[in-house]
Write a structure and sequence with these properties.
Strand content: 15-25%
Bound molecules: glycinamide ribonucleotide
Radius of gyration: 16 Å
Structural class: alpha/beta
Mean pLDDT: 97
Largest sheet: 7 strands, mixed
Shape: globular
Distance between the termini: 10 Å
Length: about 180
């Protein structure tokens, strides 16, 4: 069984979608580790309910990114993780993880990249008056939401409510992330 890790910072709906796909056989893989940089985030409750091992840390407890990323990379190595899926992990990945995992780390982002990189992508797109929204899955490099695109899906929306765009986008995200992971594995 191939081992994957999912990194998240908040709600964790993509983490749960991936974990469910592993549990019901749509993915021939196991979520062997959930990594979270926010001790109070809801994704931690999801991991506990699903019985998935978690490493949750507070970046403030470390001297810097390279210190906590070394711990994470050592854990990924010891488990034998083959693919790292960032799912709402709101941090730029640093050298420590990239030097060992570049080419095996992917990210999902709620826009048609390269448009609207970074946080609040949906809110900024609505503000801009965008009519065609989308979801992108891409390889992770040292840039913010950069890296070569693997998969993209667009949808039309004519309103002005970011919550509606989020809801429409997340339905696509959960399906597209599982399908993309399957192809990559
Ligand atoms: C997702 O919409 C994902 O595309 C976005 O965070 C959300 C996490 O949702 N990621 C980014 O904005 C990355 N720059 P979830 O916690 O419910 O999976």
């Amino acid at each position: 069984m191939k081992k994957i890790a999912v990194f998240a910072s908040g709600n964790g709906s993509n983490f749960e979608a991936i974990a469910q796909a592993c549990a019901d056989g749509r993915l021939e893989a196991e979520v062997a580790l959930m990594v979270c940089d926010k001790p109070g985030a809801y994704v931690n409750e999801r991991a506990e309910r699903l019985g998935i091992p978690a490493f949750t840390f507070n970046p403030k407890d470390y001297s810097g990114k390279s210190e906590y990323e070394k711990i994470i990379a050592d854990k990924l190595d010891s488990i034998g993780v083959e693919l790292v899926c960032l799912a709402g992990y709101m941090r730029i990945v640093g050298d420590e993880l990239l030097s060992r995992y570049q080419g095996r780390i992917i990210n999902i982002h709620p826009s048609l990249l390269p448009a609207f990189q970074g946080a609040q992508a949906v809110e900024r797109a609505v503000e801009y008056g965008v009519k065609v929204y989308g979801i992108t899955i891409h390889w992770v490099d040292q840039t913010l939401d950069g890296g070569k695109i693997i998969a993209q899906e667009a949808f039309r929306y004519d309103g002005h409510d970011p919550e509606e765009v989020h809801a429409l986008g997340q339905v696509i995200e959960h399906r597209l992330y599982v399908d993309t992971i399957r192809q990559l594995l």
